[in-house]
Amino acid sequence: MVKGVGPQRAELLAKRGIHTLEDLLGYLPFRYEDRIHFTNIRDLQPGGTYTVRARVMSGSAVPSSVRYRRRDAIYHLLVQDSTGSLPCKFFHGGYLEGRLKPGQLLVLHGKVEVDRLRPARIEMVNPQMELLRGEEMDSTEVGRIVPIYEAIGTFGSRAIRRAVYGALQQFDAQPSDPLPPELLQRLGYPSRREALLHTHFPPPDESLDALNAFRSPAQQRLVFEEFFLFQLSLALNRRAIRRENAIAFAVREERIREALKRILPFKPTSAQKRVLAEIAADVERPVPMNRLLQGDVGSGKTIVALEAGVIAIENGCQAALMAPTEILAVQHFLSARRILSRVGYRVELLISGLNPSEKAAARERVRTGEAQLVIGTHALIEEDVQFNRLGFVCIDEQHRFGVLQRKRLMDKAAVHGYAPHVLVLTATPIPRTLSLTLYGDLDVSLLDELPPGRAPIVTRISSQQNLPGVWGFLGRVVAAGHQAYIVYPVIEETKLELKAAIKEFARLSKEVFPKLRLGLLHGRLSSDEKEEVMQGFRRNEIQVLVATTVIEVGVDVPNATVMVVEHAERFGLAQLHQLRGRIGRGEEKSYCILIAPTRMSDEARLRLETMVRTTNGFEIAETDLQLRGPGEFFGTRQHGDLGFDVANPVRDRELLELARREAFQVVEDTNRGPLLQQILGALPPHWQRRYHLARVG
Ligand code: ADP
Ligand code: MG
């Protein structure tokens, strides 16, 4: 493929999704070093970060402790340039033993600190190091601003740099550019070729600070391009949906208004009314609704979804509600039945936990249309589930489902020649920028008001030592008639962690709360067992529910007013927020107690303090985003999972908004049809793959 990339390295690259020359050029430096101007060793100051060029004088590994393991050794290196000498220290540097020879020329980049043992001396600690081969210097190594790449396995920065350099030589002189000249000119961006060239090997007069902040014109152009193409796919997707036919529902007739009023178990909040009006305005048009309902935990999304379902049913259609877990599906089913069956609607539950004959019967009722509102899990989208006339689809806690699953449920209606109206519910409070990136093809409604009479939740951090006091408090609240959750971290259900909940359940039942009725809920229970426990808890037969995060999503038992989370430092912010959303659902004041060690990482402490400071989901989400970055924010580390290799929606907010405006304009402006075709014709291959996906979604 490229010079410097043998089969072994090609394999490493392939694991990172780098298959072609274009892919390799898309692997951008994460940092740059000024190797035109090196700092003289004489001029180093403690606290600063520098790049120096120096020769090896001596080096040796020293055991770091009595229980010596080679890789734990500290490697001491002494280097010199014409102005002085500099000791360097590498922790876990055993691997360097014997690798460096006196006289070899190095570039070192790192922070200079005062030597703790000899305060008169300075040293460089864990510097990044690159060996300059031979005397005659390669133009990719020094005498320029040099790109630094994250190593891929054993494929180090220096080797990657050479491979990229080679690739750029081989690169097409006139690669197709998906950004039209008119746009480039207006925004002042370089061509694609120049942008790649200058991002990998910046011109000598480029500002190092701008480069390291990813703000050079070349980098900005690449970021913009990525956002622009992504937004273009959203805009196209949106247009495609709008071009489909949906059933236009009657919503203004007296009969329907009456029906909606009849099911309401309480007075809706004004936010709920506003959102329902937005939904009604959508579904009365013969164009599919494609709407996201964002509302913090406890804001009352369910009833809005049920009302939308009733509109569909009153228009002679079926409605479907898909939830991510069986617990949640059953809970929705129970409340829907309570609210709807009373007035004669037929509600059906479809989950895999049903026994075969029940399941077959349920499917039959779905097929014939006898079932009007169908609530379920993934079981709803199994191949042989057929609807009679599906007109409305609601997906709860959307982030748990992939786009493909959403699409599959929509297809259940498509067999009848029209698209269903779609409502997606999410409690993940997504900062606006990110909702633009992720849900840019959806219209957004916001439930920004909690139902009245909610007493605030008091959140406190406490420690293991204080547990007796915490249990005492919990016991008193329960004695007063309320219920409580005790949550243990089981993230992956490894045996070891699962045992914690089970063991603690046994211990708490026997030793701490012998007089109370405790229940245990975790992911390894069967559907029936889970349902039995939940039912016991709903009926207050179980007073204290010892649980893992299976209760994280959606569980609604308003009489529960205390939650104790053990090892709270091990939970993410979004997860803690979701968990805490299980309490504070009634009119009674609620308490959330986060048990954590007194010593923990700064980040863990910040998470817990954020929980104490606020119950506002959006505020929590912003903090979470700052702490974790956008990739992990959505629960995954997968590189490019958000679809971005270069761009970062947090860092590059303004560019995202600019790209969105430009992309939607191109798609919506019918005069620019040829322009759109031109852009699509010039898409780089990886974008063509992505567009395919986007169109599916
Ligand atoms: P979420 O948005 O988290 O899904 P739910 O729909 O489960 O919230 O509602 C949370 C609780 O608030 C439920 O017990 C529900 O019955 C109640 N609720 C919702 N809307 C109102 C309202 N307007 N007035 C009083 N209680 C409400
Ligand atoms: Mg909910």
Q: What labels would you give this structure?
A:
disordered C terminus, alpha/beta, binds adenosine-5'-diphosphate, six-stranded parallel sheet, 697 residues, binds magnesium ion, 23 helices, single chain
State the gist of this model.
By secondary structure, this protein is an alpha/beta fold.
Topology:
Elements lengths: L6 H9 L5 H5 L5 E4 L14 E14 L11 E8 L2 E7 L14 E10 L7 E11 L12 E4 L8 H14 L10 H7 L4 H9 L7 H5 L4 H26 L11 H10 L6 H14 L6 E6 L5 H14 L3 E5 L3 H15 L6 E4 L5 H13 L4 E4 L13 E6 L7 H12 L6 E6 L5 H8 L3 E5 L9 E6 L4 H13 L3 E5 L7 H18 L5 E4 L5 H12 L5 E4 L12 E6 L7 H8 L9 E6 L6 H12 L3 H17 L19 H16 L4 H9 L3 H12 L1
Parallel strand pairs: 4-6, 8-13, 8-14, 9-11, 9-12, 10-11, 12-13, 15-20, 16-18, 16-19, 17-18, 19-20
Antiparallel strand pairs: 1-7, 2-3, 2-5, 3-4, 5-6
Helix pairs in contact: 5-7, 7-21, 7-23, 8-10, 9-10, 19-20
Bound molecules: adenosine-5'-diphosphate and magnesium ion.
Magnesium ion binds next to α10.
